[in-house]
Every structure is written in structure tokens, then in C-alpha cells.
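Model it.
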Amino acid sequence: MAGSLRLLVISGLSGSGKSVALHMLEDLGYYCVDNLPAGLLNTFVSHLVRHPESGYARAAVGLDARNRAADLAAIPGLIKDLRQAAIDCDVLFLHADDEALLRRYGDTRRRHPLAQAGRSLREAIGEERRLLRPVTDAADLVLDTTQTSVHQLRETIRQRVDARQSGRLSILFESFGFK
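Modeled.
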């Protein structure tokens, strides 16, 4: 079963689109678990490998900064071990610039998961970037969602997953201009 297991680890800054990505993957037939404690990732994968009858040959896991720093720091090594065990595993990291994240939090009026008494939203975002650095460094694909709508992110995820499953190389061309 290990050779047939496809695992996507989705991580990134709060407000960058992790939930949107996971919902799209679910629509594409992936079994998705959001906010899995990083320390349980190995146990989760072991369960999938030991129980192939579960039908979860394609799974996606969302990891965020609410994990212990030591567990997040261990993710690159764990990903390497999974790949050595013949598990098809990729890490997608989503981020956006601070201004976009501040705007998104202002629009939704949600509380940042690392916001505490005496810590500003900007400081919470900075701490989150620091905590997630090991996961960012281990990512196979890093997407900047600063200028990306929810619909564009869904389509990007769909295209990349479809291309990956068909064995085609996925290349995304983006253009930009100066004012």
C-alpha cells in the first residue's frame, strides 16, 4: 500500500488559503484532515498504510502554527522518511504578504490563532512565519496568494493535482506589469 499512497501536506499562514486548498482537494476525491497535530502525522500515515481497505489512497493533511515548535521542526525529516518508505508525498505551502493577511483578518473579523493578549495581529503573523519556517523550507511548492482570489486558488490547486495525477509536468505561467 505504501507505494500507492498519495499524501499532500498543506501548510501555510493563517488566512493564506489552506482551508480553500483542502476543500478543493476534498472535491477532487482526497480524504482531508485539517489541523492535524504535526506529532500525529506519522501515526495517521501508518494507519493509512496498515488499512488499505479504507479507500484512502489519496489523503491531504492541513498543518498550521498551532503545533508545538519541535513538532513543526521535525516535519522535514518526517517527509524525507515518508518518501524513503515509498510514499508519494508533497508539501504545499501557502503564504501572502502581511498587508493582505491583515486585510483578510479585518474583513472576516476572525481572531488569528496566535493572537494573545498584548500581541498585535502583525506580531502574531511574524511569529507564525517563524514557527512555520521548517515547513516552508521543506515545501515542494510555495504559492503566494497575495493577489489570488478564492476561485483562482481553487483552480490552481485543481490544475496542479490533475497534472500531477496524469503524469504531466505542471507549469504555471504568470505575467506581471509595472505601473
